[in-house]
Write the structure tokens for this entry.
Amino acid sequence: MTEMQLIPPSSAETTLPGRIGEIVPFGGFQLFVDTVHYDPVIVKALRERTYEANEFRLVQKWLRPDDRVIEGGTAIGVISMCAAAIVGAENVMTFDANPAIVADAKINFANNGLAPIKAQAGILKNRQHIAAPDEQVDFYISKEFWRSRLYAAPESTDIISKITVPVFCLEDEIARHKANVLICDIEGGEFELFDGADLSDIRLIIVETHDWLIGLPAVDALVRNIILAGFAIDLRDSGSNVAVFRRVM
């Protein structure tokens, strides 16, 4: 199991074509951090190893070597790689609506010997919420990539662009990948993703909730829906807006 490592970032600037940044050691992986285009808040979190720390810890604790994982919300691939270190890169499939950040994740996968991780640019919806075949939806890119989301108020000051992205059916991807674990951090999209989803093949769900985006009633409904699908919330490890659900029925 990969352990968090407190190693100083490389002092030398690292360049990719058209990019300037540094290599930051994180949890046994080497991450390319774009110090020009990534928001300073994110750069700081990566340097200090606080970035997605709860999810990183929970993935290390709860995943088994024989699991097959689907992740919603790839970002730069930290959690994908943490999962791949346990289950094997070929057993991880990940989705993110921001194609630019998916490209950065693929760089990190390749640089860490985990290129077989399957990364797709697009969002997951469950079958009940897909409006039509080949559906596409608007997605809002935030200057802090971890705040990019499906819904944004017109007055949102962090949004820098709007793009159109493809939709993938959650149940189809579970069947195609033979997944039994879902990891989800999709900035408020979690309620719709799990509302009416067929989770019969899933044994474990790790999901970050965003009540400040969707409201506490929606988060309460999310928890209720997953429990009614045959899961229990693990109160030993759930907290700080990240919940662990294990199948009990």
About this structure: The radius of gyration is 17 Å.
